Each structure stands twice: as structure tokens, then as C-alpha cells.
């Protein structure tokens, strides 16, 4: 996975020239915080990850990696999730929620780069 996708290849405790890190992303508190925030937001849709993946034309594993903290979510994914929540609630997501999601993503990117 490249920078544009917001994540990186995970190692299993061994070094490889093509890998950025040898630790699994979900062990990083900043990445876990982002995943927790996105999962809380996602749960308000009241649908499964598979249903969401079908609705948004994402692969189920793509959704699962972001919500599970195995990858840092892309900004596109976060924006789409917030849009879906706004549509579901028939109201806009607050600027505070958008800012918090962005701040958490930036923190996660800093520690996982």
C-alpha cells in the first residue's frame, strides 16, 4: 500500500527493505484512537461492514482494515463515512466531528510513517 492510500505494508517482526515499519499499525495508540473514533461513527449507520462496503463500492477488507486499525484510514474514506452518516441522519456532520477525525488521522500518520 502506498502513501496515497494512507497506510503501509505490515511486518511480522522481521525487517524487509520494502517495509516502513515492522510493527503492526493497530499497536500504535494514535492509530487505535483513529480506528476507535471511526468505529463509533460507523456504528451509528446501524449496518454491517459488508453492507457498507456494498453501498460504497469498497472492498469489505478495505473497510475492515480501517475500522480495525490495521491501516490508517484515507481522508477519502473518512470523508465518505462522514457523508454517509450525514445522509443517514439527514443532517450535516458537525465541524467538530470533522476536525477531530482529521486531527486523529494526522496523528496516526505521523507515528506510522
TrEMBL record:
Q: Where is this region: Disordered?
A: 1-22, 88-113
- Annotated Polar residues bias: 88-106
Q: Where is the composition biased (Basic and acidic residues)?
A: 12-22
User: Which InterPro entries does the record cross-reference, listed alphabetically?
Assistant: Cro/C1-type_HTH, Lambda_DNA-bd_dom_sf
Q: Which GO terms describe its molecular function?
A: DNA binding
Q: Which CDD domains match?
A: HTH_XRE
Indicate what this protein is called per its UniProt record: Uncharacterized protein
Amino acid at each position: 500500500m502506498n502513501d496515497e492510500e494512507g497506510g503501509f505494508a505490515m511486518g511480522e517482526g522481521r525487517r524487509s527493505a520494502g517495509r516502513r515499519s515492522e510493527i503492526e499499525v493497530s499497536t500504535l495508540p494514535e492509530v487505535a484512537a483513529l480506528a476507535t473514533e471511526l468505529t463509533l461513527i460507523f456504528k451509528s449507520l446501524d449496518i454491517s461492514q459488508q453492507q457498507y462496503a456494498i453501498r460504497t463500492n469498497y472492498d469489505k477488507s478495505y473497510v475492515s482494515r480501517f475500522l480495525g486499525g490495521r491501516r490508517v484510514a484515507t481522508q477519502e474514506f473518512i470523508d465518505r463515512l462522514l457523508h454517509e452518516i450525514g445522509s443517514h441522519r439527514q443532517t450535516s456532520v458537525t465541524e467538530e466531528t470533522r476536525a477531530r477525525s482529521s486531527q486523529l488521522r494526522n496523528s496516526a500518520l505521523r507515528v506510522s510513517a
